[in-house]
Design a protein that fits this description.
By secondary structure, this protein is of the alpha/beta class. The protein has four domains: 245 residues, no CATH class; 218 residues, FAD/NAD(P)-binding domain (3-Layer(bba) Sandwich); 119 residues, FAD/NAD(P)-binding domain (3-Layer(bba) Sandwich), CATH 3.50.50.60; 78 residues, Enolase-like, domain 1 (2-Layer Sandwich), CATH 3.30.390.30. Helix content is 26%, strand content 25%. Strands 14, 15, 16, 17, 18, 19 and 30 form a seven-stranded mixed sheet that branches. A five-stranded antiparallel sheet has the order 2-6-8-9-7, covered by helices on one side. Helix 11 links the parallel strand 22 and strand 23. Helix 7 packs parallel to helix 11. The N and C termini lie far apart (80 Å).
């Protein structure tokens, strides 16, 4: 008895270069077959319960060459016929289309259809031939109707191409839920229809495996591609259909200038743009820095690189080095002169480092073929954006998808003299002169970090606080941060807000008079400072982008953009990442992760979403404060007091190098860290982090937690 799948030349086989089915069923674009030299016979076997369809060449060529395909399916037999042609080996094989359909219910539904159809296509691909094959499930399980599988493969002259070309359509049983409507939706037949893109391979089986290995690190088939996006096998393809991702991937319009335009050249935007380019998409990045009221602007890289994380950490380190030099006397170090800091030397080194990072980003975009234009982006209509450069020249571009990653800029007080005489973090890190006696207005982490390193550099620093320190952080830890700073020379003016800033003297720095009033009564105060640094919060850069023209909703007060769990706005083709998101942490690593995962979902067939829970963060004050998870206040609100002594839901550390300590514990929390696991861990002695392996006293007990001895 032969194989269940038996093929033989059919006298009524279809004309070369035409589809196996009529255009009323589906639209199919085929390429002419190369001139045939001989016809191959083929046979194959489809065993039960195989999860994925695969195909390979069987036989040694000539008229007796054969194929074998196998795929996941219900019990029963498949019998079929096909016409296989052996074209010139100079071309590259492409599985053009594959169809599985049923006239009735099928237990495993579209999953079976996908496996069966993929196996048929893979069998043809593995045979290194061009032609067509058809199979029929002639012995279906009880209660099911017969169904059939069709596959077409063509070979085109020329060098081997990448593994994507023509659409693959799978039709499943009647009664299955239809995918979302879209431009590729077929006729209304009551069948489930899915549209995929099959693999286009090299001349032989070995070459197929090499190409797949290079692109996917896999050597097995089927490996399904949708519009150049690697989906993987049948299971992942069907998952993508169920989630709606498959339909989105099929809606790309090649008439647009770009597949993706990213507005904003910060950490999140660049991560998204580069990942999309790696996945084979045509990408444009628009980035333009509007100068601050003091005239400060910068290059590619966004807030973090230019006026945030990087320069802040460098200046924080400079302050720690100064403190270490002072402390070194107690460890026997001797030096003849008093420790003195040179502001100009530090800022020059900081800006040189930032410049190297800016250039590195430019090179990285160039290497990945990402277009970069230093222009301000503004939507003018759906899928169309106007880019205006520094000279006022305007150019319009279109794209299938957009990502808004414009970040935030510092907020001003809205009082007399604030924009004329005050600076923000946008200006501080490139300030060409030492700021001298400084008033820092605000109690955010930006305010306390800047106040901390300025004091560490030897400057006279005062912090004016409206209410509480580090709102949103654990308040016990926040107060400990403030107490440490006070002990090391930083003064705090609590419950006051500025009402006016006047210039007394011009200069670098000059002299400014600040008038403030109490938030609790009629009391007013005045003070004279060389520099006033505002750090009272930040506003999203979204209000002059023309978002209202395309209907993107934003929070009118903050400018932040509401998105769903896949960073999609209310306009389906517009997404957002980074600090512009409403209700999400404003952290560089979050923006980078979200940007990469977004690109992979849009263009890589992936489903993973960014995890915004248990995100570690550090406040780089003189004594660093690191945390991950809930604050104590939030934990009690969510879990109540009696449930807080088992699983670790919040982790906080105040001490040297807290940033280095918190990173590892954050990973442990994602894995379900418990108090018992900490107790079972052997600590490294003597280190700051080892204290978490020896915790014995709860806060609720009221006992002294001071550790005595080792």
């Amino acid at each position: 008895m032969g194989h269940p799948w038996e093929t033989k030349r059919s006298p009524g086989s279809p004309t070369v270069g035409t589809p196996l089915w009529d255009n009323n069923t589906m639209q199919l674009s085929t390429r002419p077959f190369a001139k045939s030299r001989r016809v191959r016979w083929a046979s194959g076997h489809w065993p039960r319960s195989h999860a994925l369809g695969v195909g390979r060449s069987q036989g040694r060529g000539g008229a007796n060459g054969g194929i074998r395909g196998r795929g996941g399916m219900d019990p029963g037999r498949i019998q079929g016929r096909g016409e296989l042609r052996n074209p010139s080996r100079r071309g590259s094989l492409s599985v053009v289309a594959c169809q599985a359909e049923s006239d009735g219910e099928l237990n495993r539904g579209p999953g079976t259809a996908i496996s069966a159809a993929a196996a048929a296509a893979a069998a043809l691909a593995g045979a290194d031939v061009a032609g067509a094959g058809e199979g029929r499930h002639s012995q279906p399980p009880a209660g099911q109707c017969p169904w059939r599988v069709r596959a077409v493969a063509t070979r085109t002259p020329g060098p081997p191409l990448r593994p994507w070309d023509q659409p693959l359509v799978l039709r499943g049983p009647r009664g299955a839920a239809a995918p979302p409507a879209g431009p590729h939706r077929g006729p209304s037949s009551g069948h489930l229809q899915q549209e995929l893109l099959s693999a286009q391979h090299a001349d032989n089986g070995a070459s197929v495996q090499e190409v797949l290995s290079e692109l996917t690190n896999q050597r097995t088939v089927p490996n399904i591609f949708v519009n150049k996006v690697h989906m993987g096998g049948c299971d992942r393809t069907f998952q993508a259909h169920q989630s709606g991702l498959l339909q989105k991937l099929l809606q790309d319009d090649p008439a647009y200038d770009y597949d993706l335009i990213v507005i904003g050249g910060g950490s999140g935007g660049l991560a998204c743009a580069q990942e999309a380019a790696i996945l084979g998409r045509k990408v444009l990045v628009l980035d333009f820095v509007v100068p601050s009221p003091q005239g400060t602007s910068w290059g590619l890289g966004g807030t973090c690189v230019n006026v945030g994380c990087i320069p802040k950490k460098l200046m924080h380190q400079a302050a720690l080095l100064g403190q270490a030099l002072t402390d070194s006397r107690k460890f026997g170090w001797e030096y003849s002169q008093q420790v003195k800091h040179n502001w100009g030397t530090m800022t020059e080194a900081v800006q040189n480092h930032i410049g190297s990072l800016n250039w590195g980003y430019r090179l990285s975009l160039r290497e990945k073929a990402v277009a970069y234009i230093n222009s301000y982006g503004e939507f003018v209509e759906h899928h169309k954006i106007k880019a205006t450069n520094g000279k006022g020249q305007e150019t319009c571009y279109t794209a299938a998808k957009f990502v808004i990653a414009t970040g935030e800029r510092p907020r001003y007080l809205g009082i007399q003299g604030d924009k004329e005489y005050c600076i923000t973090s946008d200006d501080l890190f490139s300030l060409p002169y030492c700021p001298g006696t400084t008033l820092v207005v605000g109690a955010s982490y930006v305010a306390l970090e800047c106040a901390g390193f300025l004091a560490g550099l030897g400057l006279d620093v005062t912090v004016m606080v409206r209410s509480v320190l580090l709102r949103g952080f654990d308040q016990e830890m926040a107060e400990r941060v403030g107490s440490y700073m006070e002990q090391h020379g930083v003064r705090f003016l609590r419950k006051f807000v500025p009402v006016e800033v006047q210039q007394l003297e011009k200069g670098s720095p000059g002299k400014l008079k600040v008038m403030a009033k109490s938030t609790e009564g009629p009391e007013t105060i005045e003070g004279v400072y060389n520099t006033v640094l505002l750090a009272i919060g930040r506003d999203s850069c979204t209000k002059k982008m023309g978002l209202e023209k395309i209907g993107v909703k934003i929070n009118e007060k903050s400018g932040k953009i509401p998105v769903n769990d896949v960073e999609q706005t209310n306009v389906p083709y517009v997404y957002a990442v980074g600090d512009v998101l409403e209700g999400k942490p404003e952290l560089t690593p979050i923006a980078v992760q979200a940007g990469k995962l977004l690109a992979r979902r849009l263009f890589g067939g992936r489903l993973e979403k960014c995890d915004y829970v248990n995100v570690p963060t550090v406040v780089f004050t003189p004594l660093e404060y690191g945390c991950c998870g809930y604050s104590e206040e939030r934990a009690i609100e969510v879990y109540q007091k009696e449930n807080l002594e088992d699983r670790v839901i919040g982790f906080h550390v105040l001490g040297p190098n807290a940033g280095e300590i918190i990173q590892g514990f954050a990973a442990a929390m994602k894995c379900g860290l418990t108090k018992q696991l900490l107790d079972d861990t052997i600590g490294i002695h003597p280190t700051c982090a080892e204290v978490f392996t020896t915790l014995q006293i709860t806060k609720a007990s009221g006992l002294d937690v001071t550790q005595k001895g080792c």
